[in-house]
Amino acid sequence: MPKDFDRSSSLEELEGVRWPVPPADSTPMVRNVYELRRRPVATLEPHELARLIGQDVGLPWLLPLAVDILRDTAPKQAEDGWFDDDLLYAVITRKPEVWAAAPGPAHELKETVALLTDVSRHVRQDIDAFLSALPGGEA
Questions:
Q1: Model pTM score
Q2: I need a surface site. Which of 7, 81, 82, 95 has the fewest CB within 10 A?
Q3: How far is it, in rounded angstroms, from Cα 50 to Cα 53?
């Protein structure tokens, strides 16, 4: 997964694939995903990254970016006593084969989630599942 790339580019530009206009009967979420793919990656907010990652869109570029955001915010949120958000959920619930193809971000995420001590029971279960899916079941 490329960690360094031109973040002023859109996913369409990075992938070299322009999706057509979404079908007229598309759901608001589908229309939103299409629109987000056209925006420069640097302009995407964490909740927008979560939406794209949750739909497995742009993972080679967005996962490292999301892991960086989580790594940077985890110490402060852990210090405040609570960390439970959409970006974390989207990232830790990707399939094991996604993480197998991204050992660097997987290792960074493993270190980041180790900082999180006060998460909901449901998020803790997802974190544990992510950790156990790492090569060698590194939970």
A1: 0.87
A2: 81
A3: 5
pLDDT in tens, 31-85: 999 999 999 999 999 999 999 999 999 999 999 999 999 998 887 776 665 555 7
Token pair for 84: 């439970």
- Joined together, the tokens standing for residue 110 give 């493993």
Question: DSSP per residue over the chain, as a string?
Answer: --SS--TTSBHHHHHT-PPPPPPTT--HHHHHHHHHHHSBGGG--HHHHHHHHHTT-SHHHHHHHHHHHHHHHHHHHHHHT----HHHHHHHTS-HHHHHT-HHHHHHHHHHHTT--S--HHHHHHHHHHHHHSTT---
